[in-house]
Specification:
The complex is a heterodimer.
Chain A lengths: L8 E5 L4 E6 L7 E8 L6 E6 L4 E2 L4 E4 L5 E6 L8 E9 L11 E6 L1
Parallel strand pairs in A: 1-9
Antiparallel strand pairs in A: 2-7, 3-4, 3-8, 5-6, 6-7, 8-9
Chain B lengths: L4 E3 L2 E4 L5 E6 L6 E7 L6 E7 L2 E5 L7 E4 L6 E5 L8 E8 L6 E2 L3 E5 L1
Parallel strand pairs in B: 2-11
Antiparallel strand pairs in B: 1-3, 3-8, 4-5, 4-9, 5-6, 7-8, 9-10, 9-11
Classes of the chains: A mainly beta, B mainly beta.
Chain lengths: ~110, ~110
Amino acid sequence: DAKTTQPTSMDCAEGRAANLPCNHSTISGNEYVYWYRQIHSQGPQYIIHGLKNNETNEMASLIITEDRKSSTLILPHATLRDTAVYYCIVLMDSSYKLIFGSGTRLLVRP
Amino acid sequence: DTGVSQDPRHKITKRGQNVTFRCDPISEHNRLYWYRQTLGQGPEFLTYFQNEAQLEKSRLLSDRFSAERPKGSFSTLEIQRTEQGDSAMYLCASSRTSPGAFFGPGTRLTVL
């Protein structure tokens, strides 16, 4: 599975959009991009995933570049409860093992 | 609640004791995973079950660790002769066919 690179930490103001980048330059054609987050002392929570097209659900939007070498997770209106570590993971649909990196620690400021 | 549940949520034990954790996956999820997470690190894969078959064990899972899923439903993770280095959060997750797993709240183990 391809490796990912994420900034160590980011912050944004409450109510503003949080844009979390992820680089996955070695991604192959059949690998998906998954995003999870982990709020302090809780288990990781699935957010969204995508292959080529941009995806949106009730939690977030996922924008994948045309060359698929990077993606951005967008939380459109961040709240204090969105403060968490966000993990970007790349893996094939036939895979079952999530390989977590260090993630991005997002702090939402009041 | 129909999510993944884990029991106990916290466990404090003395070095050398055995401990057992239980995970109840989401109903009808045939895939079950155990991960371990130490402070400041992302979760690390330990083992994977498809139904009752244990299909992969990480090198992190020493001989003191054993996991079972006898009827393809709940799973147990046992650690024998615990060591201080075993102190961590033990996470269970389940899924159907895709790798998008759903995680439980974890069991925090402290070995004194």
